[in-house]
Design a protein that fits this description.
- The strands form 2 sheets. Strands 8-7-6-11-9-12-10 form a 7-stranded parallel beta sheet, with helices on one face. It has a 5-stranded mixed beta sheet with strand order 1-4-3-5-2.
- The radius of gyration is 20 Å and the shape is elongated.
- The protein folds into 2 domains: 97 residues, Ribosomal protein L30/S12 (60s Ribosomal Protein L30, Chain: A, 2-Layer Sandwich), CATH 3.30.1330; 148 residues, Alpha/beta knot.
- Strand 6, helix 5 and strand 7 form a beta-alpha-beta unit.
- It contains 9 helices and 12 strands.
- By secondary structure, the chain is of the alpha/beta class.
- Helix 1 packs parallel to helix 4.
- The longest helix is centred in the C-terminal third of the chain and has 17 residues.
Length: 258
């Protein structure tokens, strides 16, 4: 059943609008998902969808048939929808999902570790690439951007719902993972760096990439079983962290599938 909301002071309007800020996402235990395809991916995922909001001028596509039967759905005028949306030209549908419970550390597989990567677009691209390259999940340091930032969620193009996300993974957690048998491949330029084309990732590997300006921390580098660099033929001295991560995940993923 679809319920109508017409007043700007309705608590649902205020609550969803507040989810653009991390402190309110943490307070309510929810995050914002915006756009028709993203909402569909959320509905088809293991995430708990709390509420769906549609603008009165939004025409529900056939792809939603049957998917909203068990959901709490509200319809609001376009000007109220705009208050909740994070985009300047919203598509007319959004939902909120429950933040996932803290996951136990992974036991096996390929993972990418983002060490103090703070740009939402970069982390969103890394999550999308991890999904494309067959990685099991993404680990984020405590200083990295919140993966449930609305811009970041949109930039993953649904991949947020397909790979495991681990937040607040600190040095002690990395040490635990290494003791459990994970190999650490760290992206950095050092005297010991080897070209990524000569590197063969083990089955249980964590690929580490660092801050956009400073690279990986000394703590992360100290855990390296191998330090890798990406050979470049042109004049560029470095790559964007999302581009570098995609290349390294491709190298690791392809070699593990042979």
């Amino acid at each position: 059943m679809i319920q109508e909301i017409s007043g700007a002071n309705h608590p649902i309007i205020k609550k969803i609008a507040s989810l653009k800020e991390k402190k309110y996402r943490e307070r309510y235990g929810e995050f914002l998902v915006e756009g028709a395809m993203s909402v569909l991916w959320a509905l088809d995922s293991h995430y708990e969808v709390r509420v769906v909001i549609m603008s009165t001028d939004f025409v529900l596509p056939d792809s939603f048939t049957g998917k909203l039967d068990d959901q709490t759905v509200y319809r609001v005028p376009p000007h109220l929808f705009a208050k909740m949306a994070d985009t300047k030209t919203p598509q007319g549908i959004l939902c909120t999902c429950a933040l996932p419970s803290a996951e136990a550390l992974p036991k096996e597989g390929l993972y990418i570790y983002c060490d103090r990567v703070r740009d939402p677009g970069n982390v969103g691209s890394i999550i999308r690439s991890a999904d494309a390259m067959g990685f099991c999940g993404v680990l984020l340091s405590p200083e990295s951007v919140d993966p449930f930032n609305p811009k970041l969620v949109r930039s993953t193009m649904g991949s947020l719902f397909h790979v495991d996300i681990y937040t607040d993974v600190d040095y002690d957690a990395l040490c635990t993972l290494q003791k459990q048998g994970f190999s650490f491949a760290v992206s950095a330029l050092t005297d010991n760096s080897i070209p990524s084309t000569e590197w063969s990732a083990e089955k249980n590997t964590i690929v580490s990439v660092g801050n956009e300006a400073q690279g990986v921390s000394s703590e992360t580098l100290s855990l390296a079983d191998v330090v890798v660099k990406i050979p470049m033929a042109g004049s560029a001295e470095s790559l964007n962290v999302a581009a570098a991560a995609a290349i390294l995940m491709y190298e690791a993923g392809m070699k593990n599938r042979k």
